[in-house]
Amino acid sequence: MYQNGICFITDRTYSALPVCDMVKIVLGAGVTFIQYREKGKTRREIYHEAVGLRELTRSFGAVLIINDHADIALAVGADGVHLGQDDLPLKEARKIMGGRIVGISTHSMEQAKEAAAGGADYIGFGPIFQTTTKDAGAPKGIDILRTIKQNVRIPVVAIGGIDTETVSDVMSAGADCVAVATAICRGDITANAGTFVQLLQNMRRR
Question: How many angstroms separate the CA atoms of 120 and 101, rounded?
Fold first, then answer.
C-alpha cells in the first residue's frame, strides 16, 4: 500500500477531467494508492464513480480507499475507508469494514494516539503545510510530524500542501507516505504524478 510512498487524493478543483480519467492517468504514471474524496456529489453519484474506480484500480493492482462512506466502500469492494474526525466513529466503522483498511484523519498528537489505540490501520496527519484544498486548520510543520511518527506505531500518511520541493523533507521526518492532490492535479497530471513517483523511488534507493 505504501510501497511507492504516494497516495493520490482525487480533486476536481484544478482539473475538469472526469475522476476516472484523472485516476487512470495517475495510475499509469506509477501511483498505486488512490483515495477517492468527493464532497460535492450525491451518495448515489459517489457510489457509481466508486464502482468505476474499483474496476480501474483493480486492473492496475492498486489500492482504493473511499473517503467518509464505509457502506459505499464495502458495497463496491474497495480496500478500505478513510474517515475524518466528524465521521463515523472508528469502532463502528470497524464493525462494517471488518478486516479491510480503516484510516483516520488526525490533526494533533492526542488524535493520532487515539486513532492508533483504537485500531486504525493508518493515520493521515496534517496539514503539514498551508493548503487550499480543505480547511484543516493551521499548518503543523515538519517537527510535529516527526514527533507524531515517534509516538505512534502505525503508518503515518502526511498530508497538506506537500509538493515536489518539500516531499523530501516530509519523508525524512518519518512519514510512511505522502498524500497529494493539488500538486498533481494543477497542470500536467501525467508529468506531476511521474515526478512524485520518481522522486520517491530515488529517496528509497538512498
Answer: 8
Q: Which SS3 state, helix, strand or coil, does residue 113 take?
A: helix
- The 8-class DSSP code of residue 174 comes to T
Query: 6-9 and 177-180: which strand pairing?
Result: parallel
Q: Is residue 1 part of a domain?
A: no
Residue 136, pLDDT > 80, answer no
| 76 within domain boundaries | yes
Is this model's pTM higher than 0.90 or not? yes
180: three-class secondary structure by DSSP: strand
**What gap in Å lies between CA 53 and CA 43, rounded to an integer?**
15
Is position 105 annotated as part of the catalytic site?
yes
Is 32 within a domain? yes
Distance of CA 60 to the CA centre of its chain: 17
Task: Say whether 37 is catalytic.
Answer: yes
CA 15 to chain centre: 18
Whether residue 166 lies inside any domain: the answer is yes
Residue 206 C-alpha cell reads as: 538512498
Q: Among residues 37, 54, 140, 149, which one is catalytic?
A: 37
pLDDT per residue as tens digits for the range 18-45: 999 999 999 999 999 999 999 889 999 9
Question: Which residue among 58, 134, 146, 186 is the active-site one?
Answer: 134
